[in-house]
Amino acid sequence: MKITASKIIRSKWSSEKAFVLATAAAAVGLGNVWRFPYIAGENGGAAFIIAYIFAVLALGIPLMIVEISAGNIKKGGPVRTFRAMNKKMAFFGWLVVGLTMIIMSYYLVITGWTLGYALESLTGNISSFEDFTSDYRSLFYFLIVCGFTAFIVARGVSAIEILNKIMMPLFLLIILVLTGYSLTLEGTGRALSFLFEPDMSSFLSPQLWVLAFGQAFYSLAVGQGYLITYGSFLPENINIPRSVSIVAIFETGVALIAGLMIFPLVFTFGLDPAGGADLAFTTLPIAFGNIPLGLILAIPFFWLFFLAAISSCIAGMEVVKTSMREELRLTHKWATVASFLPILPLGILAALSFTPADLSFMGRPFLEVLDMFAANQVVIALGLIGGAIISWSVSPSLIINQFSNNFRRYASHTLRATRYLWVIVLLILIISFLF
User: Fold this and answer.
1) Nearest alpha carbon to residue 191 among 254, 284, 261
2) What end-to-end distance do the CA atoms of the chain give, in Å?
3) I need a labelling partner for 251 at 20 to 30 A (CA). Which of 25, 214, 305, 366 fits?
4) How far is CA 387 from CA 216, 224, 402, in A?
5) How many other C-beta atoms can be found within 10 angstroms of the C-beta atom of residue 153?
6) Residues 6 or more apart from 379 whose CB is under 8 A from it?
7) Contact 93, 320 (CB under 8 A)
8) Where do the domains of the chain lie?
9) Fold of 5-434
10) How far apart are alpha carbons 335 and 5 in whole angstroms?
11) Which of 230, 333, 277, 302 is nearest to 3 (CA)?
12) CA 80: distance to chain centroid?
């Protein structure tokens, strides 16, 4: 069903706190508890973490600010926002939406894993990841998660607010409890060395910096349309730099805590820190099998893990739905349907890579190939170029006006970073791709 432009009414967050919680949920989700440990594990630990923190400070936060500001000023999703700045840039908005669709195709699969483990936790019999992927549960739970996400997204922003206000504090509490247990294990010393004693020669590798910026952008939701879309729902008088700073600190803190939760388990039980995309799902069942009252703690953890993951899915699908709704003049319901149709085939292929079908490409599971492609090279390129388009198209005074007096001294760095510094990172990306 189509609607006229005049009938599209934009939802709004009820407060700055609601916006921060929703953005934090979109940024954290699986990005830090699932992806950060496995990328850090494959890339030397400490050196990657230092490069990652640099990426967050140098470009991650400035890009968050300009993307949210653009959505707030133009009051639209990615396509409408880029078109409002320059009619020729509408195609770039569709590129951002396309990237989000690719990420969502496998993100929904991994969220299905969290749902599967959440349901198993209720039985007290938690499978190893090898057993979990020995049949077609990955595909089954992917389809279930798609249906649940579609239901929430079709109901709009208010449903997202309610979910995040309840879920985020509880999830963080359970993670802290598990981290406390992990730090008592015999592998803690090796884990701390791995996470905080860098190999200085690693900093000369362009690949390390590409992966660090990719993870920073992925975790902060830069270049994926989330921030533009969520920024378009902002009420008046929201301090964007303050909100962004809170989200970035929270996101980085959760990433480091996730590392402290996962890697003592890895080294204690003789696992491979470079174990790949299933690292968290390999280690966590071991933890709950050994910790006192572990099977009881597993219930709230896996359910909250599922809710954190589904929050990121909801955020991503809200990006797609908003653009479908604005550009095709669809109702919430039909925009949601249109958003999922192109995602389902790619998601099914990603799900099959962790089933007996063992779908792979270039020696890696198809899901991991999608992740390495979308969440590194593409998200960096779109994040950098998109930030530059916004920074050069929107009047500097409009961006500076998003800063309160206490934060205004950071406005010049935001403009310099998004107008000029991004070129250096793009060159590193090109060098790593060529060599």
Assistant:
1) 261
2) 50
3) 366
4) 15, 11, 16
5) 27
6) 99, 103, 214, 217, 218, 222, 223, 224
7) no
8) 5-434
9) Amino acid/polyamine transporter I (1.20.1740)
10) 14
11) 333
12) 22
In whole angstroms, give the CA distance from residue 343 to residue 350: 11
Q: In this predicted structure, which of 15-24, 155-164, 323-332, 374-383 has the lowest mean pLDDT?
A: 155-164
Single-letter amino acid code for the residue at 96: V
pTM for this prediction: 0.85
- Give the separation between CA 40 and CA 273, rounded to whole angstroms: 8
Six-digit token string for 210: 């590409």
Mean pLDDT, rounded, of the chain? 84
Q: What was the pLDDT predicted at 164? A: 62
The helix/strand/coil state of 272 is coil
Return d(Cα 123, Cα 399) in angstroms, integer.
52
Tell me: the pLDDT tens digits for 293-317? 778 878 888 887 888 788 788 878 8
Tokens of 2: 């189509």
pLDDT of residue 3: 46
Which residues, in sequence order, are CB contacts of 139 under 8 Å at separation 6+?
Answer: 348, 351, 352, 355
Query: 168-192: b or e for each residue (b if 16 or more CB lie within 10 Å)?
Result: beebbebbeebbebbeebebbeebb
Query: Rounded mean pLDDT of 353-369?
Result: 89
